[in-house]
Amino acid sequence: MYPFIRLVKEFVKFRSASPLGVTDMHVSHHRCWPWDLDMMIELNNGRALTLYDLSRLPLADRVGLIRTLRQQRWALTMAGASVRYRRRVRPFERVEIRSRAVCWDARFMYLEQSMWCGGQAASHILYRAAVTSSQGIVPTEKVIAALAPGTVSPEIPAWIAAWIDAETERPWPPEMTLTS
Fold it and tell me: CA 99, CA 158: separation in Å to the nearest integer?
């Protein structure tokens, strides 16, 4: 089940936090509870993504995106992700999550989040997010104009550009090969 109580706690915790610019970093702290564990007694990879949610949504609120979505009757969706796990997160460990929008193109915003334990990076994720309306994906230019008029995207870093290029080569729908 999705941890709605933890999500509400994050919104309450940051309700008086200062607003952030579109590319500013949001930092939050979480605990790896027993219900977050897998059979190896470490943070479950799916729950890690949920913890990233618990940080990304308050980021969206602090930059004003939640308010803009409500005003425009838009929605936010994840259109892709690439995650790298490098360190185990053990029961009761406190993690710091750093979240920020890095850049955007005509259709998508690229967000990065990292999870830290004891000063060491445990994981890092790159998301491709889109804002949608009843007509489909809202052009990012229109989203930024409603959110922070006059803001221009930082240059797309080479590693994100390479990921975007790789995603265009990825077959869709996925190939379904049966082997005997």
Answer: 19
Label residues 83-101 b or e (16+ Cβ within 10 Å = b): eeeebebeeebebbbbbbb
List 179's β-bridge partners, or say none: none
- Distance between CA atoms of 43 and 54, rounded to whole angstroms? 15
Domains, the chain, with CATH or none: 4-11+20-168 (3.10.129.10)
Instruction: Output the CA–CA distances (angstroms, integers) from residue 126 to 68, 88, 131, 161, in the order listed.
Output: 23, 19, 17, 12
Residue pair 52/93 in contact (Cβ under 8 Å)? The answer is no
d(CA 110, CA 94): 26
Judge contact between 128 and 106, C-beta under 8 A: no
pTM: 0.93
What does the pLDDT look like over 41-80, one tens digit per residue? Answer: 999 999 999 999 999 999 999 999 999 999 999 999 999 9
Closest CA to 104 of 161, 159, 60, 21: 161
